[in-house]
Design a protein that fits this description.
The protein is mainly beta and 397 residues long. The termini are far apart. The chain contains two helices and 24 strands. It is rod-shaped. It folds into four domains: 28 residues; 118 residues, ApaG domain (Immunoglobulin-like); 113 residues, Immunoglobulin-like; 125 residues, Immunoglobulin-like (Sandwich), CATH 2.60.40.
Length: 397
């Protein structure tokens, strides 16, 4: 009986030892599970990005395995850690497949390819007696979509016009329209308007307040400026609008400069007169005969209804004797310069003495002339401008 027990014990030990070695061999020949990792972008906001990771694990072994401490660490293009996606532990039965899903939101600091490090451990246990742990470690990359890497310059359009005159210059009005072509909010800053002549010499600069434009929205900025008359002397002006648009995507701030050029035609001195309904000129005079000759007193009236002070220079007069279709000069002189104040009528009195020898009839002239004709000539200007507008007025006395 004791011999039978001893024999059975030996046989049992042999069986257990064989089973042990069999299990050990099974542990040594473990098949690495098949991992299929899918990483996609769920959402992008100005401040962060949400990434979802789906890991499909196929257990090709004849025994159960456990996946422990599974996580994905994401790095930016500089190798800096930007986020971690963690997964719960999961037991995968023999010859079965399991799917793990997790998501995380973080900022990426700089747009570019995201490198993802997948790590964890595979835990194998047989009957709770034999265990083996295998490290899990590999990399996958996530490409940022082209739409999040390339951004459009805002669409900028302008309108400018000259409207209204005053004592020292003209008013510049207009507007700047900025359209956001992106699906993210943009801010616009450092907006400025520079005015220059054809030689690119600046004569004006306007700073504009910053603004924010919603996705696919637009912003219109009214413009009011002032240009002195000295700038009128060089014709067409160049207007440059420039600024900086900033867009924030997934925590990354991107600056996009914009620049647009346009031209505005400066008014001439004639435009100033015509647009302000310049009142005009008038003559009034009388003639009397004295011992020294014919004396004429002529009043030249200059009506200025505008808010602008004009200057009348290079004034001269010529008097003509008129006989039928014949006309002969009998006197000429140059006058002093005058200032024509705004919204007033200025009278310039001229005393003219024509010696009798100039009035003696000549070939074809009558004993007494039909009339005397006087012509005034001069130049009108505005303070600060080198432009001059000639005036001409003829009347009979």
């Amino acid at each position: 009986m004791n011999k039978k027990v001893i024999i059975l014990s030996i046989i049992g030990n042999i069986i257990l030892t064989g089973l042990f070695f069999s299990m050990m061999l099974s542990l040594d020949s473990i098949g690495v599970p098949i991992f299929d990792v899918e990483i996609k972008i769920l959402d992008v906001t100005p401040d962060d990005i949400t990434i979802q990771a789906v890991i499909n694990i196929s257990n090709i072994n004849s025994y159960d395995i456990s996946i422990e401490d599974l996580k994905i660490v994401s790095y930016n293009i500089h190798g800096e850690k930007i986020g971690v996606i963690s997964f719960p532990s999961e037991t995968i039965y023999a010859f079965r497949r399991s799917s793990l899903t997790s998501a995380e939101t973080f900022s990426i600091d700089e747009i570019g390819t995201i490198r993802n490090e997948v790590s964890g451990k595979i835990d194998l246990s047989i009957l709770g007696l034999f265990k083996k742990i295998l490290p899990l470690h590999f990399f996958v990359t996530t490409d940022i979509p082209e739409s999040l890497q390339t951004f459009s310059t805002p669409m900028v359009s302008t309108y400018f016009n000259i409207q209204g005159f005053n004592e020292t210059g003209v008013n510049l009005i207009g507007e700047i329209s900025i359209k956001n072509l992106e699906d993210f909010e943009i801010s616009v800053s450092n907006i400025s308007i520079n005015l220059a002549d054809n030689m690119n010499v600046s004569f004006g600069h306007i700073e504009i307040e910053d603004g924010v434009i919603p996705p696919r929205g637009s912003m219109t900025i009214p413009i009011q400026g002032f240009i002195e008359y000295s700038a009128m002397d060089k014709g067409t002006k160049n207007i440059t609008v420039q600024g900086l648009s900033k867009i924030k995507v997934a925590g990354v701030s991107i600056s996009i400069p914009f620049n647009i050029e346009t031209k505005v035609n400066m008014p001439s001195l004639a435009d100033v007169f015509f647009n302000n309904s310049f009142g005009g000129l008038s003559l009034d005079g009388d003639v009397r005969f004295t011992l020294k000759g014919m004396r004429a007193t002529v009043d030249l009236g200059i009506i200025n209804p505008t808010p602008i002070t004009f200057y009348l220079t290079n004034i001269s007069w010529i008097m003509w004797r008129v006989d039928g279709n014949m006309k002969r000069e009998v006197g000429y002189d140059v006058m002093d310069n005058y200032t024509i104040p705004p919204q007033d009528t200025t009278w310039i009195k001229t005393d003219i003495l024509i010696p009798y020898e100039q009035l003696i009839p000549r070939d074809g002239e009558h004993l007494l002339p039909d009339s005397f004709e006087i012509t005034y000539r001069g130049l009108v200007s505005i303070k600060g401008s080198n432009q001059y507008l000639p005036i001409f007025l003829t009347g009979s006395i």
